[in-house]
Design brief:
The complex is a heterodimer.
Chain A lengths: L1 E6 L1 E3 L22 E3 L1 H17 L2 E7 L5 H9 L4 E5 L9 H12 L6 E5 L10 H9 L2 E11 L3 E7 L5 E7 L2 E5 L11 H7 L4 E4 L1 H4 L3 H4 L27 H14 L4
Parallel strand pairs in A: 1-4, 1-6, 4-5, 5-11, 6-10, 7-10
Antiparallel strand pairs in A: 2-3, 7-8, 8-9
Helix pairs in contact in A: 2-5, 3-4
Chain B lengths: L27 H18 L3 H5 L5 H11 L18 H11 L4 H14 L1 H6 L2 H13 L4 E4 L15 E4 L5 E12 L6 E8 L3 E8 L5 E3 L13 E12 L3 E2 L5 H37 L1 E2 L2 E2 L4 H37 L4 H8 L3 H25 L10 H9 L9 H17 L5 H6 L1 H10 L8 H25 L7 H29 L4 H30 L4 H14 L8 H14 L8
Parallel strand pairs in B: 1-4, 2-4
Antiparallel strand pairs in B: 2-3, 3-7, 4-5, 5-8, 6-7, 9-10
Helix pairs in contact in B: 1-4, 4-8, 5-8, 8-9, 8-11, 8-12, 9-10, 9-11, 9-17, 9-18, 9-20, 11-12, 11-13, 11-17, 13-17, 16-17, 16-18, 16-19, 17-18, 18-19, 18-20
Chain lengths: 262, 593
Amino acid sequence: MKSIVCIKYVPDTSEAEVKVNPDGKTVDDSRFSFDINDADNYAVEESVLIKEDKGGEVDVLSIGPKQSEVMIRMAMAKGCDRAVRVEDDRIADHDPLMVAKVLAGAIKDKEFDLILTGCWADDYGHMSTGVALAEYLGVNHASMVKKVEVLDGKVRAHRELEGGLMEVVELELPAVLTIQTGINEPRYAPIRGIRQAQKKELNVVSLDDLGIDPAEVGSEASQVVLENLYIPEVESAAEFIEGEPDEKADKLASILVKGGLV
Amino acid sequence: MSELIKGGAYLLGPVEENTVFTPEDFDDMHLMVKRTCYDFMKNSVEPKIDEIEAMAEGVMTGLLREAGELGLLSSDIPEEYGGEEADKITTNIIAECASLTGGSFATAFGAHTGIGTLPIVFFGNEEQKKKYLPGLATGEKIASYALTEPEAGSDALNCKTKAVLSDDGKYYILNGAKQYITNASWADVIVTYAKIDGERFTAFIVDADTEGVSIDPEEKKMGIKGSSTCSVILENAKVPVENMLWEEGKGHQVAFNILNIGRFKLGAGCVGGSKAVLEFASEYVQQRVQFNQPIAKFNLMKNKFANMAILTYLQESMVYRIAGMIDKKLDEVKDSGGDLSDIAKAIHEYAIECSISKVFCSECMDKIADEGVQVFGGYGYGQEYPAERSYRDSRINRIFEGTNEINRMLIPGTLLRKAMKNEVPFMEAVMGLGGTLKQLKDAEMPQESPEREEFYLNNMKTLFLLAAGNAAQKFGEDLTHEQEVLCRLADMAMEIFAAESGLLRAKKILAQGESEESKLVMDMTSCFIHEMVPKMENWAKEVIAGTLEGEEAGKAYSGIRMLTKYEPINTYAPKRNIAEAVYDAKKYFIDRI
């Protein structure tokens, strides 16, 4: 089984205050700690579990700056075998289609059975990259996967739907699965693995190395224009229900029903 | 990086910033180990805090075993015995992270990996290492260290435990009582000390299940309640002769060398504890509203957070600087073909710095934990929030691994001993004082950072030499009895080391280019140094007043006045910015992770 896991280096916005830069289009990231996107972390674990169960190899693929190499090596410390990091500031990385096109360009000449990636990224939250990647590569896909069973030449994916429902689908390999958080329990990288990871292959490539035309994946090719970023105003509304207890109960019930809350 | 700087030599002249290691020098391996350890503490240990504090059966030992599987227990154990054999920076990173969730886990972890395991690493013979280290590396076996006795606390060599060779010559029969033994109730291996025939102080490895070894009930402690602390009773305990550790009558070499490492790691633990307080306290004050605004916005609150951040920055700068010094020394020992016991002795080179790390960091941690309670107001006194536990847990750091008083005696004491042996040019530096003061007369005080801070720091070093030199000349070898003088000299030596560690690091960060961060670290250093000068002036005067009289004293005071001339700065404004940076990050803002 040959797998590729695509991971993204994202800021941890849960800790520090998010501040938009004066340009209105970027975020001041000087206070953030960056690490692997949460859902991608589960994808790494799933790919390693599959490797441990079925044998084979796992390649890591990521688009990101030099500093993201610690994250990439962490994935290798957990059991992935080698990695490619794409670094090129011509990529319109706010547009998931452009990102998927670059990933597809980096994968197209490789042999693979499965591509795993997180179902969404904690920074822009588009939930589209994995699906678009499958489209560009012309392979099957399943999104929001909460359980994976590798069968002979196929994979059975359990997809998480609304309201706790699961949908089970079988896909012919090769395929792309976008992984939902909670599918497994991501391991910690042991020190021994960390040491071994320092020696594993990590290739850094540019668009030119991948033979991708920058015009195809740059801002001019993108249909998405980032206009403005802002922090939503904190709003709160309170309605006081007046009247006798019975009336109050009626009013409250009708508000809940109207709001679709019961 | 250039040649090795001798232990204590920082007091005698300027140090170049590129010779010191700082957290900005972490390589990928360091950052990755930090990530693993940090995540393990946050995700596996923190959720079990209540169980740990209640000493729920098997929880602590289970966590230690999990840590062992990740390699977190064995950074100091050689690879051939199942360890990770990492550098001391890595060891420091792990010790720092292990304190992130409070003192109980950190204490159990520290006793096992430090004083419990290291005597065997450094002083064990081949068979002992093969037998014990693999199990200690994985956490399958837990270690403890039993040195203290009812009548041998700080005076460790006043050990009453006796060892007598059995008639068949196969065992030492140990009799005695050890107290305040961390990890005692769950330890499998106890490193302890006894006097053979009541005379020769010797170390032993004792299996906890040895006939004649019993463990008393848990002590009822103020803090670190989730760690085990019991007396260990040795009643005709039959310890096989092959379990004697190192050489007969050489137990003191084991005991004192191991304590050095324990002290420097304790400093690292205080860094983790301090960062934890900054994290939970900065979160709280931004939510707690009084007088219609978050209490974080009050300038006095900002002042407190800035002070906490400054002390954290100095501790962090100091402990990684020492780890870097020790690593370089160890490389030197390894290159020259030294064995593991040479390494422990090599670390002794930095005994002064190890004591400074222990005392300075434990006192910073205590101040920070105290302010941690204060900023929570009444809630800080209750057990619902973590401030209360951190306050109780912090207190022990000033007591164990050699009390801060004992360590204060050691700092100038070791320096003077090194001076006598001509290991450091202390007397030469004292002789040169007159010349230095003369030059200072015409010197103009620089107005810009970092030159201004460097100017003050150099003067503080001279001030130390003036105080220490006069005391040494006046009292000679009797200075060891002048404990008040030694204590103040230690305070001065510590402040200088802290200030310098912060300043050298700030200069290194500045050399990478001006940034918001480079400004903040320079401000932190500058605030500390400006507040330090008048403090140092008082201490130096106190030492001279307790040492000299009449004309001699007058001459020394005029030297002190020259050396402590300074222009106050407005520290309020930079401290407000420092606090804002903590608030924005909701934690210690220059943490490398």
